[in-house]
């Protein structure tokens, strides 16, 4: 739902040094094609790892650590790679790995070290004539990390380890205001910010926790001198970070929780009036701290288990994307892979224009023409599309069938031109997986330790 404007590091990677045959060639192709799920599977094979060129193996190991949420391991593997092969991998690849190392230092909670590291990089680039537009993103991260380091104890858990259960409530106010019907809603979680009770949106599509300017005052957050650009549905919008002294969700409590203060400005009066109804958003940072969240739709509760679940897949089907969101690999009815943005902040599962381009004939034969209106950070997008009455997907090891899926053509209704900017354009993903797919199960396990998501007991009855 929300997206930090962070340098798309995978796009910076130049073709890896020409490989020998076999495993080297295969791994090189996967990295050059940003095929991270396939890379992660290959790197689980000891025989593959042992047969790789050492530098190529180091790069593959570093990238899988980064994309599959192993920041401590990423700091080690990236540091070793840069020390051993920094002169051999080429300037652009080296720059990518240096930035990844700085980001993973921050992910591991070492904000001061990360700030110093990226400050040194940005200053070096500036001294060597790199344009300020190219270094601005690094300095933005430096400022953010310094502000977080000054606060200290960012997102520190104050609760003991153990199992926690928090009631799940349904919030459909925004969807009703948008006339999407009663079947569209948010999964909400109750709690308090700075001791003030509230109801919060549980949004896997939010790479940051988000709060409005109005609620920043209501809950008494402390604003930092730290702004960041966000790329959303219609373009860019700036937000400023603020700190909640405490966040409580059921029996879980965290200290010094960052929220990005954003008043969604689309320029559309109706969309902005609806957006103003949005409650504070609990995003990826808090979820990562939980380690695992089970969305129990049968009993209407969120469950954080005392012990993380064992991965039944034997591989990862969830990753952290370059935009600090979550990507999930599912399968279509023919068993082919689909790469989806995971967004419980959006109710309906939908397919992007890039997917439509490959399946236009089937969509036009089965679907009903429809206008798809999406409002969010930066503006409102209205694209031509279709509503397909039935699509079948596999999540983990289970099949689900949705009776209605929106498919965007990616063509702007007002201009007739293909969209080239915004959230879905050029995202490298096939679509967005919404809450409706998850509600096809009694329970869904979202594990951030081993980066997998599975559905348990497909539901037979309608919710």
Tally of structural domains? 3
Broad CATH class of the largest domain? Mainly Beta
Radius of gyration: 22 Å
Low-confidence stretches: 1-11, 174-182, 268-275
Q: What is the architecture of the largest domain at the second tier of CATH?
A: Beta Barrel
DSSP strand tally? 23
- The portion of residues assigned to helices is 25-40%
Question: How widely separated are the two ends?
Answer: 24 Å
Count up the helices. 14
Which structural class do the helices and strands define? Answer: alpha+beta
| CATH H-level homologous superfamily name of the largest domain | Acid Proteases
Strand content: 25-35%
Q: Which fold name fills CATH's third level, the topology of the largest domain?
A: Cathepsin D, subunit A, domain 1
- Outline: globular
Major β-sheet profile: 13 strands, mixed
Q: If you average the pLDDT, what whole number results?
A: 88
What order do the helices and strands come in, and which of them pair?
Elements: H1 23-32, H2 36-42, H3 46-51, H4 54-67, H5 71-85, H6 91-107, H7 111-127, H8 132-151, E1 156-157, E2 164-171, H9 173-177, E3 186-193, E4 196-202, E5 210-211, H10 213-219, E6 222-231, E7 236-249, E8 252-261, H11 269-275, E9 281-282, H12 284-290, E10 292-296, E11 301-304, E12 318-320, E13 326-331, E14 337-342, E15 350-351, H13 353-366, E16 368-376, E17 379-388, E18 391-395, E19 398-402, E20 405-412, E21 431-433, H14 435-438, E22 441-447, E23 452-458
Parallel strand pairs: 4-9, 5-8, 14-21, 15-20
Antiparallel strand pairs: 1-8, 2-3, 2-11, 3-4, 3-7, 6-7, 7-8, 10-11, 10-22, 12-13, 13-14, 15-21, 16-17, 17-20, 18-19, 22-23
Helix pairs in contact: 1-4, 4-5, 5-6, 6-7, 7-8
